[in-house]
UniProtKB/TrEMBL annotation:
Residues 35-205 form the Helicase ATP-binding domain. Residues 4-32 form the DEAD-box RNA helicase Q domain. Residues 217-378 form the Helicase C-terminal domain. Keywords: ATP-binding, Cytoplasm, Helicase, Hydrolase, Nucleotide-binding, Stress response. The keyword Cytoplasm applies. A motif (Q motif) lies at residues 4-32. The keyword Chaperone does not apply. This is DEAD/DEAH box helicase. One of its GO terms (molecular function) is helicase activity. It comes from Clostridium oceanicum. Belongs to the DEAD box helicase family.
């Protein structure tokens, strides 16, 4: 069956010319199905996963049908994050290249006075985050009483971030005869209620559901690690794979800061991104990533929303995501435009069951991979060093040093000499001082059960100090710590277990007389 072309969808010539300038000829599934429906004037719900071209899907018909009204806003586009607001605005500018629509992204962290000044000069389309849009409405600068289009993008993420009431208030400030478009990867009940209450009865629902929720070009692996060797495992993976550009996900802002500090301490080209950082910081970091001046970005889920960087070779889940949807969104950062991508996830033993849930829901395979050994790292680095040596020889970029090599060769065997030079180069290329060849087989962990928990105000720091004081353990001896309401589980190195049980049993921890034993069943 012949593929549909953009020029068959009913878009105006100036929009088609801009799309052609962008290098697109064939629409994606969501674009093919929803553009004609929007052009007909229907309210629409577009349901598709991230990375499917939703911005062009609503932007092209919106701009094609846009009627400019002097001194009034014609369209408002709501999006959950600053980065996504900027990205959508940039995409719309490209689509409107030959139609000269005036666009403005509005978001917190940028001076509101400039945004007010721009709106008063005359803007056709505003792309904004809910908080800043409401602020501008409250100041009576942004008036939505005669808009032609209202677009809500990433509606499910808006819901997750607590913007549902903001969305309702913004919609209530707009005119009833607008055309409304709602885009969402999933359709939770509150989003369905929003559509039912604020969209027309003949709203068209266009759903493009992949057979697999994940990107087919992404190969997925997991590494089983514990907290003690998680960072070294990451370093080993990076030193073997040498990613071109990678995004590394952490659960918390604090986790991002800690990992960035640790990675920078080992010499990796890395920066972080999370909600506590200034807008300028975040934009500068994103610019470096897109320009190839940054290799690794460590980010939280919310901060990474909307990041779309070409040639992203790896997505690494340093912390496992909180839900399946977050996993799908994370790994969707790589494997775009039919390019190959890799997704790695670090999990503890107790988190493996969640991976099975992801596999079942996404109908994909996440394969176990062993953490690289020192031998793997040496082999990977040698391959790169050998390639550089051969390239240097072929380019003749060594002739000035031949006399020095001859002098050395008089005193040293050529094999020893070459090995020494390679060793020096290897040392400069490996970020971590690895001591054990295989960290996953260097002694088993034993699961221990302790009769103290959150109700006793126990936390990991207090527990580690207690074990250090009474059993002379150090942080490296203890792996995962799972604190529940009335009890706690810890992973401890096999060679310290006997000492922990004998020295800590019967002692008081957080006011409670402690009982410790080897866990019968892993929780």
């Amino acid at each position: 069956m012949a593929e549909t072309k953009f020029n068959e969808l009913g878009l105006k010539k100036n929009i088609l010319k801009a799309i052609d300038d962008m290098g697109y000829t064939t629409p994606s599934k969501i674009q093919e199905q929803i553009i004609p429906v929007i052009l007909e004037g229907h309210d629409v719900i577009g349901q598709a996963q991230t990375g499917t071209g939703k911005t062009l899907a609503f932007g092209a018909p919106l701009l094609s049908n846009l009627v400019k009204t002097q001194g009034k806003i014609s369209s408002i586009i709501l999006t959950p994050t600053r980065e996504l607001a900027i990205q959508i605005s940039e995409e719309l500018k490209r689509i409107s290249k030959h139609s000269k629509a005036k666009l403005l992204p509005v978001y917190g962290g940028s001076p509101i006075e400039r945004q007010i000044k721009s709106i008063r000069k005359g803007i056709d389309i505003v792309v904004g985050t809910p908080g800043r849009v409401l602020d501008l409405i409250g100041r009576r600068v942004l008036k939505l009483d005669s808009i032609q289009f209202l677009v809500i993008d990433e509606a499910d993420e808006m819901l997750n971030m607590g913007f549902i009431d903001d969305m309702r208030e913004i919609i209530s400030n707009s005119n009833d005869d607008r055309q409304t478009m709602l885009f969402s990867a999933t359709m939770p009940s509150k989003i369905k209620d929003l559509a039912r209450n604020y969209m027309s009865e003949d709203t068209k629902h266009v759903a493009v559901v992949r057979k697999s929720m994940t990107v087919s070009t992404v190969t997925q692996y997991y590494f089983e690690v514990n907290q003690r060797n998680r960072f070294e495992s990451l370093c080993r993976v990076l030193d073997v794979d040498n990613p071109s550009i990678a995004i590394i996900f952490c659960k918390t802002k604090k986790g991002v800061d800690k990992l960035v500090e640790d990675m920078q301490g080992k010499g990796y080209n890395v920066e972080g991104m999370h909600g506590d950082m200034s807008q300028n910081q975040r934009l500068n970091t994103l610019k470096k990533l897109k320009n190839g001046k940054l290799t690794y970005l460590v980010a939280t889920d919310v901060a990474a929303r909307g990041i779309d960087v070409e040639n992203m070779s790896h997505v690494i889940n340093y912390d496992i995501p909180q839900d399946i949807e977050s996993y799908v969104h994370r790994i969707g950062r790589t494997g775009r435009a039919n390019k190959k991508g890799l997704a790695y996830t670090f999990v503890s033993r107790r988190e493996r069951s969640f991976l099975r849930q992801i596999e079942k829901s996404t109908k994909s395979k996440i394969t176990k991979k062993d953490v690289p050994t020192i031998e793997d790292i040496v082999a990977s680095k040698w391959e790169k060093i050998e390639e550089e040596i051969r390239e240097t020889i072929s380019n003749g970029q060594y002739e000035d040093f031949i006399s020095f090599a001859k002098d050395l060769n008089k005193e040293e065997d050529s094999v020893n000499l070459t090995a020494a030079l390679v060793s020096m180069i290897y040392g400069k290329n490996v970020k971590q001082d690895y001591s054990e060849n295989n960290i996953t087989s260097s002694g088993k962990d034993v699961r221990l059960f302790l009769t103290a928990g959150r109700m006793d105000k126990l936390n990991p720091k207090k527990l580690l100090e207690f074990l250090s004081d009474h059993a002379s353990t150090n942080k490296e001896d203890i792996g995962d710590i799972d604190i529940f309401e009335k009890f706690t589980f810890i992973d401890a190195k096999e060679d310290v277990v006997e000492n922990i049980i004998s020295e800590c049993n019967g002692k008081r921890l957080c006011g409670r007389k402690l009982k410790i034993e080897v866990a019968k069943n892993r929780k």
